[in-house]
Amino acid sequence: MGPRVRVQLLPPLLLLLLRLEACAGARSFQVDYANNCFRKDGAPFRYIAGSIHYARVPRPAWRDRLRKMHMSGLNAVQVYVPWNYHEPLPGLYDFAGDRDLGSFLDLTVELGLLVILRPGPYICAEWDMGGLPAWLLWKPDIVLRSSDPDYLQAVDSWLGVLLPRLRPRLYQNGGNIISIQVENEYGSFSACDYDYLRHLLATFRALLGPDVLLFTTDGNSPAELRCGTLQGLYATVDFGPGPNMTAAFAPQRQYEPQGPLVNSEYYTGWLDYWGEAHASTRPAQVAQGLQDMLQLGASVNMYMFQGGTNFGYWSGADYKGRYKPVTTSYDYDAPLSEAGDPTEKLFAIRTVIGKFQALPAGPMPPATPKFAYGAVPLRKLAEVLELLDVLCPAGPIRSRFPLTFEAVKQAHGFVLYRTRLPRDLWAPAPLSSPPSGVCDRAYVLLEGEYQGRLERDGQTTLNLTGRAGASLDLLVENMGRINFGTNASDFKGLVRNLTLDSALLSDWLIYPLDVDTAVARGWPPRSPPAEGSRARPGPALYTGSFQTPGIAWDTFVKFPGWSKGQLWINGFNLGRYWPARGPQQTLFVPGSLLSPSAPNNITLLELEGAPPRPMLLFLDRPLLNQTVSPHPRAPLPPP
What we know:
Low-confidence stretches: 1-24, 629-639
Oligomer: single chain
Largest sheet: 8 strands, parallel, barrel
Number of helices: 12
Shape: globular
């Protein structure tokens, strides 16, 4: 008979903790290759998800948008994390206010939505530089999205901050994040650097653990999947509505012969570019494509379910033979409009979802109230050249030749370049930029008089006359860095030397302008101009204010007679307006930005020329498709 073993009973609290740990350990989200499906806690599972970008929706509206997505029948949301939104400078992290990712994810838990997270480090998303921070370009020869050690060092530092925040939120750890994407559409990038993907895979595994489902997303062509996939990452595809969904999924089956069919970006609409028609896709077409995929048993994420707005300077650009900046509105012709309102497309999609799974009980939340506040007069505050001490308090940088935005560590907005005419110009002499030498638009002034503009992929020459020593100023606007395509290093400013009558211009003063900080500190920074001061074209700031009728509702602001510029209300940068180019004619103004009692302060930076009677018009509906250009180009199909 062996020795007796004394059994000590565990305290009840410890037993409870062990049971809870065992329950958490039982949670799983996995690929079932044998049965071509996902398994959630061991049971077959299919997600029907929609994309929403917290960075494009005002924080007070997050709950409203997510609730409408839940009531549409979705069981998951797909969310990008823009690196540059959270690390504006190396080592400076911001997860507060509108950037509070944790609070957004808490709301998804509260509303019973699972999360498919796409933390990049590159996300595309028609977001400035595809989510990569502009400060990466402080090293001019850096090779983005590659095994370049400088790039990887920055990526590892960022992921070392972000991914540990996500780990407790993983499904197997008791949270609601069921899967995480590594990089994004890498097969559409020219580098095809498998060592880079392997490095990311190892980093994600080290920081998130061995159990989380990691995946890739690429266009549904063999060429894109070839460079975008890697063993250890589940390969998914993206595509829009079409007549044969089986054929559309065929490229995924070449790389994942077994496992669930997944469309990670089923296009419900499309983005808009300045100067092209507003994109539109028929609700019936979108609904039929969704139904066809669900009949195949596929998991689907709809991109976008709510698009939102590219506030501030966050809109990106494509390069497809020419530079194509994205509009401020990211309405996307999505099921939920830019302002978060249910559309005909939403109800068509909801009807389809109801054929495959039970819909939540209760009515769809209604559209948010809108109000037409009417006309608001503005007055000219000052020309930009008169405010350089306020907009650039540190003073100019001297350089023999122009420096890029990145060289002077300016991420967004505007930089003013100043030199002097080297000699008398009695006859018109050409001020010329090489092709793509101005990125992206330069507003040219001589002795303070507006002469016109130079534009990337547009006008590159202006004729000037003047006396030797006359001040020559170019206010250069960054219209958004390229977010998709082969050229990811999109430097801004005067990126190549200018010539005047074929002679190089030199000896520059460079003013990085911080308009946002000046606006946030309150206008006017000096006394207003005297009555009857001469109005003239060129970059200038205008101000005004209006009061709401006791309640602050969403609204849309129109720009009658204005050319192009930027708008702030109560210090918040609402984005770029460009009615002369279109198609977008209004900017969305969330009611949460407005005061129901105090005056709402307006600051407007007009770059080319104001109307004779400066005013804005606040409407109760958007105008997104009034392109002014004589030959609007049709939107390109999804890649």
